[in-house]
Amino acid sequence: MIDLYTFTTPNGRKASVMLEEVQLPYNVHKIDITKNDQFTPEYVAINPNSKIPAIVDQDTGITVFESGAILIYLAEKTGKFLPTDQKGRFEVLEWLMLQMGGVGPMSAQLNHFKRFAPEKIPYAIQRYEKEMLRLYGVLDKQLANREFICGDYSIADIATYPWIAIYESQGLTLSHHPHLKRWVETVQQRPAVQQGMNVP
């Protein structure tokens, strides 16, 4: 049994989608970051960085925080969505790291400055919009002759999808990125994705 500590953010959805995909039983613990639940002593003991998501594997006693690390852990635990051959494994890990170091942070900054910042700063909005559109182009090119980011469905797709799926709420469009748009539509049809995107 897995204990999942999460909230309704793209990073949180990465973990719940993965748990649905690998069909491991899990309990959901809602960490409401709008109420500072992530700073309680009980949660800091699980994740000293006070971010979501985090998991505790009751079978092994292992605690894992950081969404990318959680995806790798669950992939290795179940033998799913991460190739075992070196070339395939590192291709998936490359694109996972691109999400963690590029797509996620840039999208989050755009979200903040466009929707939540107390004042509109045109330079910041333009900077992060431009970078997100550049990253859309990188993904679109990668998907031009592949159904999924690395060919077969993997943790690279699971990590990236929740951050791309919010494009409309950020005032962006995929009209100039047809391969990325097709990929979004394909991934969102997966039952596990639909279920995981509704957790908690």
Structure description:
The protein is built from eight helices and four strands, in the order βαβαββαααααα. By secondary structure, it is an alpha+beta fold. The chain has two domains: 2-81, Glutaredoxin (3-Layer(aba) Sandwich), CATH 3.40.30.10; 86-190, Glutathione S-transferase Yfyf (Class Pi), Chain A, domain 2, CATH 1.20.1050.10. The longest helix is centred in the middle third of the chain and has 31 residues, at 86-116. It is globular and about 45 Å long.
Strand tally is 4
Major pleated sheet = 4 strands, mixed
Please write the string of helix (H) and strand (E) elements: EHEHEEHHHHHH
How much of the sequence lies in strands comes to 5-15%
Query: What portion of residues is helical?
Result: 40-55%
Concise synopsis of the structure shown:
Helix content is 54%, strand content 9%. By secondary structure, it is α+β, with helices and mostly antiparallel strands.
Produce the secondary structure layout.
Elements: E1 2-6, H1 10-22, E2 26-30, H2 41-44, E3 54-57, E4 62-65, H3 67-78, H4 86-116, H5 122-142, H6 155-164, H7 178-187, H8 191-196
Parallel strand pairs: 1-2
Antiparallel strand pairs: 1-3, 3-4
Helix pairs in contact: 1-3, 1-6, 4-5, 4-6, 5-7
